[in-house]
Amino acid sequence: MNDNVDCDIRQSLDKVSSQMRRDYSESLRELKLYVGQDNLLARLWQGDGITQMQLCEHLKCEPPTVTNMVKSLEQNGFIYRKRDEKDARVMRIYLTDEGKKLEDPVDFKWKQQQEKLLHSISPEERLILRDLMKRMEKNLS
Amino acid sequence: MNDNVDCDIRQSLDKVSSQMRRDYSESLRELKLYVGQDNLLARLWQGDGITQMQLCEHLKCEPPTVTNMVKSLEQNGFIYRKRDEKDARVMRIYLTDEGKKLEDPVDFKWKQQQEKLLHSISPEERLILRDLMKRMEKNLS
DNA sequence: GTGTTATATTTAGCTTGCTAAATATATGTC
DNA sequence: GACATATATTTAGCAAGCTAAATATAACAC
């Protein structure tokens, strides 16, 4: 499109993010998870029995996306759904034993990925980078 | 997962990138394009009549993805396909007049998005950011 | 209680990605 | 020329995203 610094940044961001995703996706497949499902599970590891709307909020995605992810995770035996007793509209999501067991291995993969991404970047630079990222986040919201 | 700086960066990267994508996607819908299709067209604006394999290379994605994107763009009248005369295996992709007309508006949207992402970040900081992004790119490859 | 409005989830249908397998055509070898 | 191998593309099937529309239940108003 054009070749100034700004453009490089936007493109780089895209490239890094999609490469990171591809990489991590491959890594997660060893645990029979798809990329993004780890985020959903991470929320449940903090405390399960939450509703799909709460998952939407946490994952910053739309209800149909959660429906599909939950369906897939349920079919693979990592979670199960139970209708709320007080309010029949809401589904509450719980971890199975299989789902609970994934916490440590996922944490390991996550750290591995992080290390790969940042290994040549010093602690001081990481702070600067974090600051810049946060500012970009704010710019977009 | 955990709450140190490194983790923030990886998560921030994901957040910024997906927010940027969502934003840009919405913006492109006004031109009847889906996000990612602008990249494919951008390659054609540099010169069309290239093969799907060349598009794969440029977009860094797999052949079936290009097949689908090309199909969608063709149905919407932005490109057309012609079988190569010398080698009947390859399809060559050309811009229609409609497709050519999109170059300027897409460029405008792209710059708008860039400005939004970076507006609070100084030129010096942009250079630092670019350097860090490039290093992360290298770490992943 | 009936009717309206709000909320939670699902369904249908689309695009971007992927992988694995199928198809078609070229090319190189004997 | 026949056969094996390589290359370009497509098909099928899956997941993450989305939007728009459907469904089910709750809650509120009268």
Automatic annotation (TrEMBL), chains A, B:
GO terms for molecular function: DNA binding; DNA-binding transcription factor activity. Keywords: DNA-binding, Transcription, Transcription regulation. SMART domains: HTH_MARR. The keyword DNA-binding applies. The keyword Glycoprotein does not apply. Residues 6-138 form the HTH marR-type domain. InterPro entries: HTH_MarR-typ, WH-like_DNA-bd_sf, WH_DNA-bd_sf. PANTHER family: TRANSCRIPTIONAL REGULATOR, MARR, TRANSCRIPTIONAL REPRESSOR OF EMRAB OPERON. This is MarR family transcriptional regulator. It comes from Terribacillus saccharophilus.
